[in-house]
Amino acid sequence: MFTNLGHANAFGVYESYYERVYLSHESSSTISWIGSVQISCLFVFGLITGPLFDAGKFRHIMIGSTILLTFCNLMLSFAKPDAFYQIFLSQGIGMGLAMGATYSPSYAICSHHFRRKRGFAMGLVASGGAVGGLIQPIMLNHLLNERGLSFGNAIRINTAMNGFLFVVANFLMKTKHAAVGGVKKSPVGGRGRMMMRFMTQPAYLSVTLGLIFNLFGLFFPVIYLQLLSTTKGLPENFSFYSISILNGVSAFGRILPNLLSDRFGAFNMFIPFTFATGLILLSILAVNSIAGVVSVAIFYGFFSGAYIALSSAVLASLADHDGEIGARIGLASAFSAISSVAGPPINGVLLGSSFNWTPPILFSGVRLFPSG
């Protein structure tokens, strides 16, 4: 989670740097396609890796994604200035697929080891993405904007850290083989029929549709908060840390509400936190100062972090048995990719070259209400 969702949560640093320096001839909307495709790959690949995980192919998934992520991260470091297609292919598609391969299985593996405290365990796993989203932006901003390293050297240093952590994860993560193979033993029989059965269940269908609506706007602050802070005239040395503040607080949001969900129920926690996340996003309309950015970063980080972690706990709670948890999370994640790939570019178009922040904030904020 530190290297997949954590790196995706750092895209706001790339968005700002690309727009100011490395892809200065491209619009905000065009640049945001890199981040949106990466995030959508993070979700859509779960349609494949979720069932593969349930079928006992976890180790194959981990080894393959480690190789792919390290290779594509390294290729990003060789991308030339204003070569949009090179960055899009390596960061948007290549790294996105590598991250997506491990996203759903990282949550599903918790169900093999935890039952009573499953929500809390999933929250701890999700917090890895928040910690990564805290450290990776600081690292990238320090290398690119403070030390002034070339783009290639900065990304190669980042590649070394991500590759090493993926290797460590390969040794630390392990399934309980007795719990794997639910897809093959499904009473319905076959992956396709099993997934069709999921979509005929009202609770699962409503959660999935809610996630699709929500993800149109959920990642707006992650991608645009640093740029918003800069365009509002706030000091650059502060703006560089706005995303890290958001992601750092998000770690607590991914743990504490999930701990309570084991007692009060994942659904009962998920609904109010979704509404709160939408309200906080809309409050960005009033942000014009350092105090405003910090307040939004803290509150949005906490409540959006809870949303991300609780959504997986909600999906897992709908499973009939452990062997279909990976497929349920993967299928819902795949459908969510529709909005996660479209949301940031739409926000970029609404933002425009004049940086009118009202339209994208309204568009993103209202999208967080339907699932509640």
Automatic annotation (TrEMBL):
Keywords: Membrane, Transmembrane, Transmembrane helix. GO terms for molecular function: transmembrane transporter activity. Pfam families: MFS_1. It is found in: Membrane. The chain crosses the membrane at residues 31-53, 60-79, 85-108, 120-139, 151-172, 203-226, 238-257, 269-291, 297-319. SUPFAM superfamilies: MFS general substrate transporter. InterPro entries: MFS, MFS_dom, MFS_trans_sf, Proton-linked_MCT. Its main location: membrane. Residues 203-372 form the Major facilitator superfamily (MFS) profile domain. It is a multi-pass membrane protein. GO terms for cellular component: membrane. Belongs to the major facilitator superfamily. Monocarboxylate porter (TC 2.A.1.13) family. This is MFS general substrate transporter.
